[in-house]
Amino acid sequence: MERKTFEKTRLATSLSLALGLSALMPAHAADGDPRAEDNIEVIQVSGIRGSLIKSMDLKRSSDGIVDAINAEDIGKFPDSNLAESLQRITGVSIDRQNGEGSRVSVRGFGADQNLVLLNGRQMPVTTGSRSFDFANIASEAISAVEVEKTAKAENPTGGIGATINVLTHRPLSSPGLKASLGVKAVDDSSTDEGSVTPEISGLYSNTFADDKFGISISASYQDRESGNQQAQVGTGWRSFPGVVDQDWGGSNAEWGGVPKDANQINRPGEGDIYSVPQTTVYRFEEQQRKRTNGQLVLQYEPIDSLRATLDYTYMRNDIDTQSHDVSAWFNFVPTQESTWSDGPVSSPLVYSETYDGVADMSMAAGDYGTRDESGSLGFNLAWNASDNLTLKLDYHDSYAERTPNNRYGSNNNLSTAAFIRTSAATDFTGEVPVLAIGGGNAVRPEDMRVTGSTFTNAINRSEIEQLQISGNYDFDNGNSIDFGLAMTDVNNHSQSVLVQRNDWGGIGAAGDLDAAWFPSSGVIDKFDGSKGDFSDYQGSASTDPLNTMFLWDFEKVRARAAELYASSVVGDCGNGFCPSTDYASDTDRFTQEESKSAYVQYNYAGEISNMPFDVHLGLRYEQTDVESTSAVSTYDSATWIAESEIALNATGERAFQTQTGDYDYFLPNANFNIELVDDVYLRAAYSETIGRPDYTSIQGGTVVSTLAYRGGGSGSAGNPGLLPLESTNYDLSAEWYYGNASYVSIGYFRKDVTNFISSNPENSNIYNIADPSHGKYVDEAIAAGAITAIEQRQWIYDNYGATDPNVTINPANGNIEITGNPGDPELNFILTKPTNDDNSSVIDGWEFAVQHFFGESGFGLQANYTLVDAGDEYDNSNLGRPGDATQNVLTNISDTANLVAIYENYGFSARLAYNWRDEFLNSTGQGTGANPQYTEAYSQVDFNIGYDVEAVAGLTIFFEGLNITNESTRVHGRASEQVLNYTQTGARYSIGARYSF
């Protein structure tokens, strides 16, 4: 019987060879087989249609379920940001940072559970996660991106959602002289202070000596200025059973509880739950980013059977940020007047407080910068040892480092305040929370005083050394076997040092600062989203929306404060108004992860009733050892320094700890593909995969915030003994390729996931620190009639200031400071520590995709929809209190859809793209504890238009637009009224030219 095998169309084969041969090779061997198919006539087709044909051909000829995006031409990827391109793929969604694609999720699995490779190599990251930040890499040097949704034995582990392989240009895969030069001018409407910024990129590739030697050099530089406007409930919402109140003479009082009185309109019932906001903040940022990328590739093929590749990739991303914010911190005084939504999950439509005296109206600013820098040196050797045996060796040594790039640190916040607030009220009925501060719009520069500050320096460095040896043996009957070994060594080192002043009650006097440093600005009128008008409010607080703040000069105020005010903490500049580089004095954590793996896979091709099929059966073994060493600060007391704030007092010593973990797995996989009739394919796949915990989770040591509040402190701990998620995967797909650029597909996937990693916040009395804000002195003050925190602190000082050394006046700022005494209740901390649990969950879904071109008209379209079901939903009425059921739900699961209209003819090309992602649960915790966060549904429209200048061959001019409808993002808590963050960026437009030959 004559064996029939899958056949690509002649055009598709030619396109793959001419414009993307490297994209067809296995992920870990992107430099591939040195032998070429010299007898095939090459037809070069570029542009949008050519790119889609190449991607479609890869999908059709793959061993499993794969999607891809290919460059439209040398130096021209479909989008300037790789993540923006990837979101067009079925099942892929992205997270954006400052309006630009940053991380990707696939089939509902977050960025940490998708493995990103660069030319088949695992790359280091600087964020503590395992997710690659696509904002760091320029698209101009990229030839293709493959998204493998089913597992193969040869793929490194870590991608439960998908393995994403980013492939860069290789000269011997595209022989001859190739070059491109691109320039672009970018106008980002999100910035208030920026201007049009430049981008430039170039790529040169050539082969010599009868195509035995090749060189490729690419470089790019991008200067971008952007900004955003945010409305926040900063720390989060505090949630309570309806029975909780503020009657400290009863048994149900808790800090943050709502009184049971006539000032509460439609107060939640005892069977309901309710939440109260901790603060309302408006934050405005300006950001400048300078991104530099470069790559050098040298290839040598001395004989037809041997190809060597040496490459070096460099990426740098400098980000400088300036911020200003204005806020009101709610103190949960008894004089609350609020209007509530109906239960059972009740939220304030309007929340307000009035004060007997005055409280602070805070305005903070920051000026900080970071540098992300990475380099990767790689070597690849591909040898056809015989007609049947191919061997490959791939080695790389790579690093990624994030360092401070500003004299004021990698992050900082210097706070000022005007002590003029007579009331505070927030209307939560619109998209944007509307804050009204009694006396806020009458604030003067002369009212401003310096309060607390934080200056942080942090260094994160990751190093990966990886060796992969693989081979393929072709049997004479046409079947084959793949095999390989790999060793991967990952070292992560994180250090940070904090200089924090705790003068949150104010220091100095009004008038210390030059009024000229405090230019006035509007606030609420900077937001476009819908806003409430306090029409549901019946209280006595001011309802005049805050529309006055000062965008004050950070450097001048900082310098004047350093001159005037002494500090007990000191940075490198000799005072408390700058960062420190004494990393040995604070948090220092090092983690090493060593992995060894081996795999074998048998590949068989045959025929059933004239239907060609192929089967791939594989087994991979993974063994991993983890060791984490940590040194973290410790604390032995706490001081109540202001109405709500409690400062932790360090012992001056650090706790040292070394922890270990290990695990190993056998991971089978099977892929089956059959061509039922011409151009109609059915695929089925089974695999077992693992998703490793992120690097932050396997760090040792417990780190707490040095500033706690009356509701308690917060912190986090790592767990080097964590085991990976385990997933058993089933996939089915049907595909019909009915034209040379058109197809339709439908797929079903199911993932049975166990060994979940949960980080549910837990209460802890770590350090056994006495809490002065709930001690016996406070009980006595309440019994004496002191209701508010201000009254309680004053009563304690009046009665114990002369006799108790723990009750004092700070001579630097005049604030009362009360340190806890033995017998006071211990300060509670909400700590998050990741742990494995025994629960399992099923994630399944459907993927629908169509790509169609209307003959030779030039018009085409792409459309896809992904439907995902994650099983149990988060129960918003479950507060996570003792006795409540544990909630083990998956985050980042959502439906997604894309629609792209295309035109390409007569030298013109145009693409209009719509992307949508449904609402999803992004976290099960806030800064206030076990309270959920939901990212609301988001859609975006982008376009690009190009024209090939006929008079100059190879010259294209183009115009692009991103987020042209100025969409904003919004995150809320247990109910839509419980806004956590509303971020507004804006549209970004660019115009440019590209010349290639």
Describe this structure in words.
The structure is a single chain. By secondary structure, the protein is mainly β. 6% of the residues lie in helices and 52% in strands. It is built from six helices and 51 strands. The protein has a 33-stranded mixed sheet that branches. A five-stranded mixed sheet has the order 1-6-7-4-5. The protein has a four-stranded mixed sheet with strand order 30-32-39-36, with no helix packed on it. Strand 14 and strand 15 (306-329) form a beta hairpin. Helix 1 (10-20) packs across helix 2. Residues 1-30 and 32-44 have low confidence and may be disordered.
Strand-helix topology:
Elements: H1 10-20, H2 47-61, E1 66-70, H3 82-86, E2 92-97, E3 100-106, E4 115-118, E5 121-122, E6 142-148, E7 163-168, E8 178-188, E9 197-208, E10 213-232, E11 237-241, E12 264-265, E13 273-277, E14 279-303, E15 306-329, E16 338-340, E17 345-346, E18 348-384, E19 389-404, E20 411-427, E21 434-437, E22 448-474, E23 480-501, E24 520-521, E25 549-550, H4 554-564, E26 587-608, E27 611-640, E28 645-677, E29 680-691, E30 702-704, E31 707-709, E32 713-717, E33 725-739, E34 742-754, E35 757-758, E36 762-764, H5 776-783, H6 789-800, E37 807-809, E38 816-819, E39 829-832, E40 835-836, E41 841-853, E42 859-869, E43 896-905, E44 908-917, E45 920-923, E46 933-935, E47 938-948, E48 955-962, E49 968-972, E50 979-984, E51 988-996
Parallel strand pairs: 4-7, 12-16, 13-17, 32-39
Antiparallel strand pairs: 1-6, 2-3, 4-5, 6-7, 8-9, 8-51, 9-10, 10-14, 10-50, 11-13, 14-15, 15-18, 16-18, 18-19, 18-20, 19-22, 20-21, 20-22, 22-23, 23-26, 24-25, 26-27, 27-28, 27-38, 28-29, 28-31, 29-33, 30-32, 33-34, 34-41, 35-40, 36-39, 37-38, 41-42, 42-43, 43-44, 44-47, 45-46, 46-49, 47-48, ...
Helix pairs in contact: 1-2, 5-6
